[in-house]
Amino acid sequence: MEVAAEYRGMEACDDEPVPEAIGPYELERYEPCEVYLDWDDPRFEGTDVWAGNSTRFDLDDGTFMTFDHKIHDIVTDDGAWRMRPHLRFDAPGYPDPDGNTEWWVLDGEGAYEGLVALLVKEGEDLRGFVVPSDRLPPVPEHLLPA
Fold first, then answer.
1. Other CB atoms within 10 A of residue 83 CB
2. CB 44 within 8 A of CB 3
3. Contact 20/26 with Cβ under 8 angstroms?
4. What pLDDT sits at residue 24?
5. ∠ CA 31-121-16 to the nearest 5 degrees?
6. pTM summary value
7. For residue 97, what pLDDT band results from cuts at 50, 70 and 90?
8. pLDDT, tens digit, for every residue of 35-84?
9. How far apart are CA 15 and CA 59, in angstroms?
10. pLDDT range class, residue 21, cuts 50, 70, 90
11. Which of 88, 79, 119 is nearest to 103 (CA)?
12. What Rg do the C-alpha atoms of the chain give, in angstroms?
């Protein structure tokens, strides 16, 4: 089943990250914020909390590389959608991550157990599909932990 959401805004959360220097890199921890989306599917109507961290590594040539992690957890009256951690990076010679499409995977819990939301975020556009999790291709056995 296809789903889509329209971005309405974000709770007035602390926009400034909390920096923390650890050796040769800097870590920024962002406070969780509530995101407001208008979904066309009632299974996603609930509280959507975003959280993220960013790590910056200074490179020897004066440039830097940045890794960003983020998650969205959507909690409804009937269950939840838990986003698998999303990682993106920015480094010299690689495309700007702000212009890239993001692919999100959210696992259903409670009434949505056994479902997975496969979403694509392009700018403010968020759309995708809800499918049974057993319909996803299995992880190749040689990639599974021993």
1. 19
2. yes
3. yes
4. 66
5. 20
6. 0.76
7. low
8. 888 999 999 999 888 887 878 777 778 787 888 888 889 999 999 999 98
9. 26
10. low
11. 119
12. 17
How far is the C-alpha of 103 from the C-alpha of 99, rounded, in Å?
Answer: 13
CA distance 119 to 3: 8
Task: For residue 51, give the amino acid letter.
Answer: A
Question: CA separation (Å) from 89 to 42, 51, 139?
Answer: 33, 17, 24
Mean pLDDT of the chain: 83
DSSP state of 114: T
Q: Cβ–Cβ contacts within 10 Å for residue 2, how many?
A: 9
* Tokens describing residue 109: 């819990």
